[in-house]
UniProtKB/TrEMBL annotation:
Protein name per the record: Uncharacterized protein
Superkingdom: Bacteria
Organism: Arenimonas metalli CF5-1
Length: 234
């Protein structure tokens, strides 16, 4: 596996984040997707909604992670978490993240959240991917709280290259960049290509987060992965 060195300008986490284990888990996720959608495409019918597709995929990750992936951590699906108002003691937010890989194998605990969204090669789909139930969960929502790295996983319904190209263009629109609080790298790029975190990702984006959700450097890097759903039987 190619070793990736994280070298963003705001990367005090680079030396601490367990990059190699995160890469192994993500590579296993991608490899497992290709294997199971090829062997059992009927279990990944594109007409199913996203929670059903994600739940089915988690079953394979959980079943195969130790025996075939040789991973030391575990996979969870929609693990319930809660946020409380510290003043009133009342619950203010319930969180169910799609798929998470977590491990205590290294000196630093790894919590890696993957948010799955269907994606087409047109505008309405991009807006859903970027919206309140997509990327914004990592921007002004509670997903991957205090985590420096997370991942968006696009389950593509059209030609994957067209999906990537369309999403790339939409992310570079000024209003979109501002809304998603995207940060440029030292060269002024808002899309980091190739990915600085995962060789299997098409690109990364970095997002400023509220202080109560942010990791120490104030921003979370999102890696964007693209996995094709099987063609629909005619």
């Amino acid at each position: 596996m190619r070793r990736v060195t994280v070298s963003a300008p705001r990367d005090p986490w680079g030396a601490l984040f367990p990059v190699e284990e995160a890469q192994r888990a993500t590579q296993f996720l991608v490899d497992t997707w290709h294997t199971v959608t090829g062997k059992a495409p009927e279990n990944f019918d594109r007409r199913r909604n996203e929670p059903l597709l994600t739940e089915q995929f988690w079953w394979y990750l959980d079943r195969l992670g130790e025996s075939e992936g040789k991973l030391l951590g575990q996979w969870s699906y929609e693990k319930a978490q809660f946020e409380f108002d510290q003043v009133t003691g009342k619950k203010i937010k319930r969180i169910r993240q799609d798929i998470e890989y977590f491990s205590n194998a290294g000196s630093v605990r790894l919590n890696l959240t993957y948010e799955f969204k269907k994606l087409k090669a047109k505008g309405d789909s991009w807006r859903a991917y970027q919206g309140q139930h997509g990327m914004r969960r990592f921007v002004d929502g509670y997903y991957a709280k205090h985590q420096p790295v997370a991942a968006m996983v696009a389950m593509t319904l059209d030609d994957t290259k067209r999906c990537i190209d369309g999403l790339r263009r939409s992310l570079l629109i000024d209003g979109t960049r501002d809304s998603l609080k995207m940060l440029p790298d030292r060269d002024g790029r808002y899309l980091r290509e190739p990915s600085q975190v995962f060789p299997t990702a098409a690109f990364d984006t970095e997002h400023k987060r509220p202080a109560d959700q942010a990791p120490p450097q104030g921003a979370t890097t999102l890696a964007h992965l693209f996995l094709a759903l099987p063609p629909q039987d005619r």
